[in-house]
Amino acid sequence: MAARRARTRVRRYCAANRLNRFATLTYAPPFCLDPRALREHVGTFVRTLRRHLGVDALPYLWTGELHADGLRWHAHFAVGRYVARTKIECAWPYGFVHIKLLGDLPYGSAALDQARLAARYLSKYVGKSFAGQGQGLHRYEVAQGFAPRREGMRGRSSEEVLAWAVERMGRAADFVQSSAEWHDYQGPSVVFFSWT
Question: What's the predicted TM-score (pTM) here?
Fold first, then answer.
């Protein structure tokens, strides 16, 4: 349940901030075997990167992942602007860096489409089990002050609320489902709308 909530938040954060550049930060020997050390290193990396870019704030999201050996850690990181590889390498002195713009999408795809692709990659890593490692730690970290803004709307019917949401989103919902269709659901009546 926690992993599902985390994946949803990652997707929303990436889309809201157009995080369309995806990076992997790995270690050269000695490798990182401690998830707390990984968090300390990535925190230092972000502060150093902001200093190199000359900005006080930078929307980003990162998550840790264990290598297949179940011992060594590395990080996946997303930003929404061009950052010279040399600046990233300078800010990450622990090993190797790979970064790419997620542009392998159909012609005419916008930054939002690229950000959604990055969100799919990152949410996959966020959803992986820590398998006893990193217990009590967050599955991912984000820059503060860039959380998507929530909008609320009250209406007399689900149709009225859907009409408002369609106007706000600019197109019809891709998926609509009523809680009446959910087996064993015992809460208040709910209608779920989503846009891809």
Answer: 0.76
